[in-house]
Design a protein that fits this description.
With 140 residues, the protein is of the alpha+beta class. Helix content is 24%, strand content 24%. The protein has four helices and six strands. The strands form two sheets. The chain has a three-stranded antiparallel sheet with strand order 1-2-3. The protein has a three-stranded antiparallel sheet with strand order 4-5-6. The radius of gyration is 20 Å and the shape is globular. The C terminus is likely disordered.
Length: 140
């Protein structure tokens, strides 16, 4: 299995650039990495338990952390930071980008979901908080 020779986090463009010792080079978007996270939250705890991630278009990578000599832990700005991206996983995600991305978009469409985060209300929160409208007390 190829090993990385260079890893760069490009926060502005929201990409992780990784080069491998076999000459392959990949630029992987944060959204793509987030929706294909190897975490149990996304992959589930067994076959057939994959959880479709939606609304992650604007997610970024806040930080990355090397894990031993075999992978990275990515800290996303939506708070997700579980799942170790092994060199094998990153290589696979890079090599199969077109297929995996196409399948993801088809799954979103079939589920009636979107890459776009849910719209927020005027206060910037989702879901909108109910408002308490004062009611007049009846006068006797």
């Amino acid at each position: 299995m190829p090993h990385p020779t260079e890893i760069k986090l490009r926060r502005k463009s929201g990409t992780l650039e990784i080069a491998f010792d076999d000459g392959q080079r990949f630029s992987l978007a944060a959204e793509y990495l987030r929706v294909h996270s190897p975490s149990a939250e996304v992959m589930g705890h067994g076959p057939g338990q994959h959880v479709l991630q939606s609304g992650k278009r604007d997610v970024g990578i806040a930080n990355l952390e090397p894990i031993g000599n075999y992978g990275l832990l990515l800290h996303f700005d939506d708070g997700h930071n579980t799942g170790i991206y092994t060199w094998k996983t990153l290589y696979d995600l890079g090599s199969n980008f077109e297929h995996y991305w196409s399948e993801y978009l088809k799954a979103l469409e079939a589920a009636g979901k979107s890459r776009t985060p849910p719209a927020s209300d005027a206060q910037g929160t989702w879901p909108p908080k109910p408002t308490n409208t004062p009611t007049k007390k009846p006068t006797n």
